[in-house]
Amino acid sequence: ALASIEKTFGALPKPARTLAQTYTVEPVQDGERRVELRRNGEVYVVGIAYHSLAGSSPDFPAIDAAVDILTREPSGRLYKKLVETKLAATLYGWTQQSHDPSLTQLYAQVRDGKNVDKVEQIMEAETEGLGTGKIDEKELERWRTATLKEIELGMANSQRVAIYLSEFAAIGDWRTFFAYRDGVAKVTVADVQRVA
Questions:
Q1: Maximum Cα interatomic distance, the chain, rounded to a whole number of Å
Q2: Under a CB-based contact definition with an 8 Å cutoff, are residues 161 and 154 in contact?
Q3: Which of 24, 25, 130, 189 is placed for a possible disulfide with 196 were both Cys, Cβ 3.0 to 4.6 Å?
């Protein structure tokens, strides 16, 4: 297979062109932005978002770890305070790993509309307290173990490898995937607190 690939694609010259750089920059946000959508129905959702880092940042694994420390079922801080207490039915969060800085987003599906404000206050307090509060090494290690296992299993699947490499190429360089994996192995509690 490698000989066939080399014969077919090895003769292609490296492109001389360079891709145009992004020319738009998000303006500085000088305060909180709030959106409230009211509709008929029985499902309430509280979402909060924070400006985050580009996917190629060496600190990106710390952002992923912070989201996991907040949302992991059943040990996540927000999971315990919202889902276990029945204030929320579900909880989820993510940061999209992209070329440009993005958003870290957290959402909770609220069971009772009377609890929307309380859920929002808990989400903000826990999220914003992550940088100053104590993070247990076990919280970080749970995320690290699960993430490294997911990467290892993905590398045993050719379709996943192709997806990993193409997604990281879109960030700017396919090798960023391996930098991310190495960053996951090295991230510390101090890194998570600093980034949070």
A1: 66
A2: yes
A3: 130
